[in-house]
C-alpha cells in the first residue's frame, strides 16, 4: 500500500517557475508504514520537541527516542561495544564489528559515522542509527565507529566538530582499542544530514593535522545539512517536506550558531562567501555525495558538489529523484538498499588507491 505525500501539490504549483529538470516526479508515494513513521517524526520534531524560545524538551525526547543497548553477541551477524572517552561531555562511540570479520584474508576498512538530527536530536544508540550502522558494517563489510557528540541548543558550534575530531584523534592514538581486523590505513568519514556537515569540517581539520595510523581515503556524505541566507529553488518549492521543513532548518541553525551569526557563516554555507577554501588542501578526500529529489536541502548539496569540483577535488554525485530526506533510514524504500551498493563500490575503489 502506498500513501501520497500532501506536499506534492505545493511542488506542482512551482513547476512553472523553475526548470523542469529540478522538479521531482510527482506525486511522491511512500509505503504506508514509512508514511506513518515519517509523519510522526515530522510532527514531533516540528511541533512537540522544539520550543519557540529556542530550547528543546529533553525529557520528552528521551522518552520517544527508542534506544538499542550495545550488543556483545553478534545479532544479526554484527557485535557492538561502547567506548567512553570523556564522560564530562558524554563523548563516546559505538564500535560495530561483523562477526564474520575474522574469515576475511585482509583487514577491514574503518568507517567513522556521524549521525544526523539537526545537531539537536538522536545519538549512536538511537534505534534507527544502530540498525543503519549494523547494516553498514555487515554489507560492506567494515568496522563502523558511530560517534556521539554534544547536542544543540545546550552546546553550540563548534562543540560538535570538536567531539567528532577528538574521536578521530583518539582512535589514531589508541589503535589497539579497535578489533584486530580494523585497518586504519583505509578509513572513511561518513555522515548523514548534520553528520554530513560535520564530516566536511572534520576532514578540513584532518588535512591540517598529523596522524600516525589513520589515513582517510574518502567521505560518504548522505544529504549533508548545509544552508545559507538565500532561499533556494528547492526551499521555495518544498517549504514543508517529509522530515525536513524550512522552518525547522532555520530553527536548527539558530540553535547551532554562535549568537549574532547568520546562515552565511562558514560552518553553514560551506561554499558561500565566507567559505573555508579546500583547493589548497592536498589531502582532502574524495567525496561520494547523495542527494534526494524531495529534500529541500538538495540545492545546497549540489552547490557543495559543484564547489568541490571547482576546487579541484574528486567528487561523485548520486541523485535519487523520487525519495526523501533520510531515505536510508527507512528499509521499505528501494533507495535504502541501493545506497549500500553505491557505498560498497566507492569504499572498494578508494580502499585500493595508494
UniProtKB/TrEMBL annotation:
Residues 111-329 form the Alpha/beta hydrolase fold-3 domain. One of its GO terms (molecular function) is carboxylic ester hydrolase activity. SUPFAM superfamilies: alpha/beta-Hydrolases. GO terms for biological process: pollen tube growth. PANTHER family: ARYLACETAMIDE DEACETYLASE, CARBOXYLESTERASE 18-RELATED. Belongs to the 'GDXG' lipolytic enzyme family. This is Alpha/beta hydrolase fold-3 domain-containing protein. It comes from Trapa natans. The lineage of its organism: Eukaryota, Viridiplantae, Streptophyta, Embryophyta, Tracheophyta.
